[in-house]
Amino acid sequence: MLRILFIGSLGTQSVVTLKGLLASGQNLGVIAVAGSTVGLKAATPLRQRYIPVIDEKSSDNILSVAVKEGIPVEILQPNDSGERLRPAMLDVGIVSCFPHRLQEDLLQVPRLGCYNLHPSMLPRYRGPAPLFWQFRHGESETGVTLYEMDQQIDTGDIFAQQRVPMSNGVTEAELSLQCASQGVELIQALLQQLESGMLRLTAQDERLACHHGWPGVQDFHITTGWPAKRIYNFIRGTRHWGQPYTLRIGTQQFSIGSVDGYSQYPIPEKDYSVDGNRLRFNCYDGFVRARLTVAGDPMSYHPQT
Question: Which residues contact 292 (CB under 8 A, 6 or more apart)?
Fold first, then answer.
């Protein structure tokens, strides 16, 4: 059985992927997280085979799984070569939602290479926040891609892909869970092919490629030129980022915190109506019911990793 280096973050996709691998009986040799990982107090070198100490308030994540399963944890910095991992004799690296680009030396530590699980149908939506951009662009489906990593961002040869529908009102956390669940099956198939020596990969079609970086405040602006369903699903899907959504109607500018629903029929004889912190506004093909932010709201912009 192949000995796996698992590299991830504290997000939904990472923990679902890791648990799926453990449930299928895979051999997890080391779990690696970013040095800036929230909730991590300290970790000792791999050679000492210790588990890191995590905050008592930490929720279910790959660190808590490491503690429970007795799997060593290593901390990776952005320019880490991973040289200290070589004594662990790792066969393959599985990466799921890691916030930094991995250095070439680190990619070569597992003898069979590193493979990343990415929540889009590559080469579309390359970059660190693919689900955000798919919500923003009003996509009706996403997907998950398992590919061999190289020094570029999300450009490596593809092992397999699986489409995943984006249901109405789905949140990014829910969608991440669906992508990760599908991704576990792809990883299991990859491990089988690696063990048999029959691995087949396919180059990405650069003609279809697009890349998006981290979203900025301006990327949370919405417009009445969008369909109501797109506005509703964008705000529902990305609400956890904690950034208010700005909307301008004529001379009025609104700061929206959440949405309650939408309709395909516009409000008659007016562009919008306000009742307390509730806003209804017409858009391209109907109207949206939203809630305005109010003074003292603890909303602040934090890029997700």
Answer: 254, 255, 256, 257, 274, 277, 278, 279
